[in-house]
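Q: I have 136 residues here and want to know how they pack in 3D. Can you give me a structure?
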Amino acid sequence: MKLNAERIRTLREQRAWSQEHLATVAGLSTRTLQRIEAGAAASQETCMALAAALDVPVRLITGTPQPTDISTGPSLPRPVSPASSWIMPAVLLVCLVVWFGYSIGKDMAERDNRATAGCDRDSAACESSRPDAGAR
């Protein structure tokens, strides 16, 4: 694979790195880096190692042109539609209302069950404590 030797040299010098340092960081021999900067071809693994060491995309050091199609670039987050932005809060609200209603209903049922159990034991006391007991 043909690399852009001048660009590699420029990127290395921008970081104030020697050939030995870049070779060490990339996991290459110094002689391999010297050959690359002299214009020799390199394997794909060497190209990827250099790109990773220089923290640049591979296409930047291979000399391949930047893609002009914007669909090949990084994907942008999809815009949230107004219809879907209220769905999650609405679902949470419904769950809260159902839970609250269940809790209140359960408490009321337990209170009624306790009152009914008391009436079963002492029906005379239960008759006199009813609100409609005076109307009889």
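Q: Anything worth noting?
A: The radius of gyration is 39 Å. The mean pLDDT is 80.
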